[in-house]
Amino acid sequence: MIRRSAFGIFIYGLFICGIIFIHSFIRYELHEASPETEAANPFSSGPYETSPENAGLSLSSLQNIDAAVEASIKEGELPGAVVLAARNGKIAYLKAFGNRSLKPEPEPMTTDTIFDIASLTKVVATTPAIMQLVEKGVLRLGDPVRRYLPEFTGGGKDDVTVRQLLTHYSGLRPGFGNSREWVGYEAALNEIWKERVSGTPGRSFAYSDLNFIVLAEIVRVVSGKAIDVYAREHIFEPLGMTETAFQPPAGWTARIAPTEMRSGPAQLPKGAKPEYKMLRGEVHDLTVWKMGGVSGQAGLFSSARDLAIYAQTLLNRGVYGGARLLSEAAVTAMASPQSPSQAANVRGYGWDINSEYSSPLGDLFSGGFGHTGFTGTSIWIHPPSDSFVIILSNRVHPSGGKNINHLRSVVANIVAASIINPEIP
Predict the structure, then answer these.
(1) Which of these, 66, 93, 206, 411, has the minimum number of CB atoms within 10 Å of its CB?
(2) Helices marked H in 34-145
(3) Number of other CB atoms surrounding residue 67 within 10 Å
(4) How large a percentage of the chain has pLDDT more than 90?
(5) How buried is residue 84: exposed, middle or buried, by Cβ count under 10 Å (0-12/13-18/19+)?
């Protein structure tokens, strides 16, 4: 009798455990699928695609993006594009248009295409690297640059601060001229040391690649790691951005959108005859190309999904998938006006807020922050509506391309107009 009772109790226990397991599983599935959970932990395991309505956007409105991009392609402004719109931690729109390659052979654009994102490098790699070093207490934005780079002196540069580099109020000119021949990272720095300010530091705005060459060198000196290594270890790997890198590996080439023809490599052997080829996986920016492919102002390659992870991290106030990239205070500082008061061109730390470069803001979004890239890329992040818009193209392919600021603004307007029940001021 005792054995039978024990066996019965054992079977009954298994039955109860099974019921508890099934109940817990059902609750887990419902919990994972619930809008409340997704809103509380958006993109917890990667970009989450859903219907526009589930994300709080209107499908009928978003469909206007199709006609806008197709018209731009027809006008020859760009060969193709990938457009992504997200809200409330969900990707509501992700679509590829046109071709990623026209020459030497046509190739259709795909949503997983990897692009040379040009100046988005400034805000996806260099700016967060600088802000992380500020958080660690090893760098102060109000310090003169020469505190970290003693060679950065003379020519009116002595009092230029790290903050002024980030906001483009350093007085440095936009970029190197073509009058001097140089090749290599160290050679570029030597050119920087000889630079004279062309504007008044702290007062004159000039969007400058030179600012971010200097910032990347500050990262290297302070952290002991070049910007490509630092960004990989401290930004991309923690966030799971597996399709973002400087000097992308050969295995990515088939998915990379080509840019323009160029003779290469940047440094040819003496007497060698240059052979022109279509750049594909090599940086388009001429200065970075001459520097060897790695710098703070350009050179990064990425995909729409990876950039969505990064944008969502900032909307999450610095957290993504359990990893904290930046403090909430750092994200707020980057996205807040940091340029001189009453300045016509309003910049945050690294990011554009409202300036002559704010085409991705459009006409209907009020506030937010973003950036553009020369190759035809842009991001605009709008915290008030918990949304962002990413446009990736290789507008310079195959031979220069045209201005796409009109398209950037139009797409932003369409997304802004598609917001359902916006809880914004």
Answers:
(1) 66
(2) 35-40, 52-55, 59-62, 64-74, 121, 127-135
(3) 11
(4) 81
(5) buried
Give me the residue spans of the domains in the chain: 47-119+246-417, 132-223
Contacts 24+ apart (CB under 8 A), 351-354: 351/123, 351/127
Which pTM does this prediction carry?
A: 0.88
From 1.20.1250.20, 3.30.465.10, 3.40.710.10, 1.10.10.10, which CATH number describes the 47-119+246-417 domain?
3.40.710.10
State the Cα–Cα distance between residues 255 and 179, nearest whole angstrom.
36
- 421 has a pLDDT exceeding 50: yes
Three-state DSSP at 376 gives: coil
Q: Is the distance from CB of 100 to CB of 257 less than 8 angstroms?
A: yes
pLDDT for the residue numbered 285 = 96
Helices within 42-146 (DSSP H only): 52-55, 59-62, 64-74, 121, 127-135
Query: How many Å apart are CA 300 and CA 363, to the nearest integer?
Result: 29
